[in-house]
Design brief:
This protein has helices at residues 21-43, 48-74. With 86 residues, it is mainly alpha-helical. It is built from 2 helices and no strands.
């Protein structure tokens, strides 16, 4: 058991400030694609209702990935940077 101290973080994991929405969405789509692949691999080791449940989870993950990709597409192309800047 651990004690809460005055300097304890309020969240275990956080996303640092300054990351663009585009980069966040790209990372999200890649993470969801990985989760989908894992769920499908896991599902094929199961049978019956458990397999159907795992495939249902995989489908929810895939739909979420498609929504994130659509949001990324709707952002449009990134603005051109000034010459000499990346």
């Amino acid at each position: 058991m651990s004690k809460t101290t005055q300097n304890s973080p309020t969240a275990l994991f956080t996303v640092i400030d300054g990351i663009s929405t585009e980069d966040l969405l790209v990372n999200l789509t890649e993470t969801l694609a990985s989760a989908h692949a894992l769920a499908c691999d896991f599902a094929f080791d199961l049978e019956g209702a458990r397999r159907e449940g795992a495939l249902g989870i995989a489908q929810l993950i895939e739909v979420s990935r498609l929504l994130a990709e659509r949001a990324l597409d709707d952002m449009g192309p990134p603005p051109e940077s000034e010459p000499g800047k990346f």
